[in-house]
Design a protein that fits this description.
- This protein is an alpha+beta fold.
- It folds into two domains: 59 residues, Arc Repressor Mutant, subunit A, CATH 1.10.10; 58 residues, Winged helix-like DNA-binding domain superfamily/Winged helix DNA-binding domain (Arc Repressor Mutant, subunit A, Orthogonal Bundle).
- 55% of the residues lie in helices and 12% in strands.
- The strands form two sheets. Strands 1-3-2 form a three-stranded antiparallel sheet. The protein has a two-stranded antiparallel ribbon with strand order 4-5.
- A hairpin with a 5-residue loop joins strand 4 and strand 5.
- Helix 1 packs across helix 3, helix 4 packs across helix 6 and helix 5 packs across helix 6.
- The longest helix is centred in the N-terminal third of the chain and has 16 residues.
- The chain starts with 5 loop residues before the first helix and ends in a 7-residue tail after the last strand.
- The mean pLDDT is 91.
Amino acid sequence: MPLRGSGFLAAVDAIRARVLAEDRVERAGLATTLGGDLALLDQVIAFLHGRDELLLDVSGPAVLSRRRVTDRLLAAVAAAATPLDFAELSAVLGLPLSVCCEVVGWLEREGRLVLDADGRIHPGRGVTRT
């Protein structure tokens, strides 16, 4: 169960700021933000992941900001001359396929991306090609 106090909230703010500042942060790097307290780090990651603020790359293990990945992904789809498939999107972003699939799934449910019958990703509501 997460700690509930100003120390926990300060740790949440510190980890959130670190992840927002970098594209990808290894778990060990995040631990240094909290003075090496791995138990506290696990609680903070669980808290932020439960609120869909973090993406977990299990191949890393690394932590990514959902907001940053979403912004990059939408920009890549908007900038593409033709619709991308998942492998192309993963290569363009330099992110694991699993992370791309997770974010595309959220954005498809929100209507911001559309998948065609061939599995290609098109801009949806509010996304314009650049």
